[in-house]
Amino acid sequence: MIEFENVTKVYPDGTKAIEEVSFTVEEGTTTVLVGPSGCGKTTSMKLVNRLEEPTEGTVYVDGVDNMAQDRIDLRRNIGYVIQEIGLFDHMTVGENIATVPELREWEQSRIDERVDELLELMDLPGNYRDQYPRELSGGQQQRIGVARALAADPDILLMDEPFGALDPITRDNLQDEFLEIQDRINTTILFVTHSIDEALKMGDQIAIFDVGEIVQYDTPTEILQNPKNEFVENFIGDNRTFKQLAITTVEEVMEPREERPPGDGDVISAATDGGDDYAIPADASLQVALTKLLGSEDPTLPVVRDGRVVGTVSERHVRSYFGPTEES
Amino acid sequence: MQSAVSTVAESIQFLSENFPEFLQLLQEHLLLVIISEITAIAIAVPLGVLAVRHERLKSPILSIGNVAQTVPPLAIIALMFPVLGLGFLPSFVALFIYALLPVLVNTITGLEDVEESTINAAKGMGMTPYERLTKIRFPLALPVIFAGIRTSMVINVGTAYLAFFIGGGGLGVWVISGINLFNMPQVLAGAVTGALLAITLDIGLAVIESRIGTASPDSSQVAA
Ligand SMILES: Nc1ncnc2c1ncn2[C@@H]1O[C@H](COP(=O)(O)OP(=O)(O)OP(=O)(O)O)[C@@H](O)[C@H]1O
Ligand SMILES: [Mg+2]
């Protein structure tokens, strides 16, 4: 858990980077800091692992004022993906990833295992282990930066624009991958981006920053449905409804099907009759669902999970989710 | 052209006729260069680290190095004579002083030129200042430091000829007395072998560098 309590940071040169900032990242959740360049996102992040120290206020890490914790221990327990990637050019990919486990003096066999595991997780071929960072593409380097931060299984992860250097398609893939990883590792994550779309996609909570302060701290849905002021509205952009379609799953709007005994022949055939293209996975977004509905002869399509029909969805369900007042 | 060819032939003959003496001079020369160089490295590298760690020490350290470098080598040698007399010791001290600066400057530059983002990453991952120095800054600066050592070593081979003036021996014995006697074959025999020595030492250092250095892509290409 990370807690900011009235934190102000003034740099020695007099720049006030953030002022009276308070928010909490609950254990196992992801909070995304989003906002224009220079609004204090990186500074906030550095306050967590004490690369910077607050001028006023307190940052609690796992309930304890981080100024009272040993700086080195604190950092070794927090994974950190820095904005500039910052790989060590004189070390191989494997050595880069193994940095924190090495510092923590893990056994060599355990380190090797972990490096292999992470290369696989990041979808990098095992022979990259012995290559040098400069031999790799920007996107690959960024993935190694993420792997390096994850190496020692930290409870807390700080990710400063971890997918910034990627083309939209790779970024999208990596975001998906990371959401999956996140499900498995249950880490408390503070994630920085300047893209609202990335924030909506990655965050359980989003903190929208204007210069030096948080304007709104809410769930993605809440931010889309009730932007607090004009700054937030402008930041989201004008296609709010469309964005909401992207972050809402079919499951949230479908009509659930009554429980039937497992193995019911009718249920299974309904899911498979029309082929894979016919049914909609329960965790698909409403964008996907609408696209399918618009392209389908049937007004209602089955929703499936693990090959079983769990409900049905039609345009009407999507519409009613947004309520009658929603425009555009 | 004729005379140049014959001079070369004569100097080869001179070399082979005086081979035992040549080996003696070469050994003196090499010893002077290597011992003064190693001492210079042993002093300059820690001094450079100190200068980088403590900003306040940097300019005094650098100015000491600069002063040492601006005094002409012959003057340093002349200055050593009244203090330390004749022979190996004053020659060694003079060469050491002269070898110091390139290593010092390159150590400081190399350590300081490591990118801020790299250092920040190391810090953020919980490296102590000492670990950052030994695991990050120093290995990344190593190619630059080595470049300084190589420059300094090559200069050192040339400067060591002057040791002759204060009885330090070395190849300067042939070259300088050869000049005085208008004995061109002798001058050439001493000078060319010195040049070959410089080249050999330089290559040797390059090999060492690629061995101990980070086997980073570009330095391994140099070795290949
Ligand atoms: N070391 C520093 N010394 C002085 N001012 C700084 C320092 N680091 C950052 N700042 C200033 O603090 C403010 C916030 O910087 P910060 O890096 O936190 O912004 P950011 O939100 O991460 O921006 P970006 O999206 O461009 O990365 C900026 O005005 C910046 O110029
Ligand atoms: Mg930033």
UniProtKB/TrEMBL annotation, chain A:
Top-rank taxon: Archaea
Keywords associated with the record: ATP-binding, Molybdenum, Nucleotide-binding, Repeat, Transport
Major enzyme class: translocase
Entry GO terms, CC: plasma membrane
One annotated GO biological process: glycine betaine transport
InterPro entries in the cross-refs: AAA+_ATPase (IPR003593), ABC_transporter-like_ATP-bd (IPR003439), ABC_transporter-like_CS (IPR017871), CBS_dom (IPR000644), CBS_dom_sf (IPR046342), Gly-betaine_transp_ATP-bd (IPR005892), P-loop_NTPase (IPR027417)
Reactions the enzyme catalyzes: tungstate(in) + ATP + H2O = tungstate(out) + ADP + phosphate + H(+)
Start and end residues of each ABC transporter domain: 2-236
Protein function: Part of the ABC transporter complex WtpABC involved in molybdate/tungstate import. Responsible for energy coupling to the transport system.
NCBIfam families: proV
Protein's name according to its UniProt entry: Molybdate/tungstate import ATP-binding protein WtpC
Species, as recorded: Haloarcula mannanilytica
TrEMBL record, chain B:
Gene Ontology biological process terms, A to Z: glycine betaine transport; transmembrane transport
UniProt membrane topology term: Multi-pass membrane protein
Domain ABC transmembrane type-1 positions: 26-209
Keywords: Membrane, Transmembrane, Transmembrane helix, Transport
Compartments, record wording: Cell membrane; Membrane
Gene3D superfamilies tied to this protein: MetI-like
Similarity comment: family membership: Belongs to the binding-protein-dependent transport system permease family.
Name this protein carries in UniProt: ABC transmembrane type-1 domain-containing protein
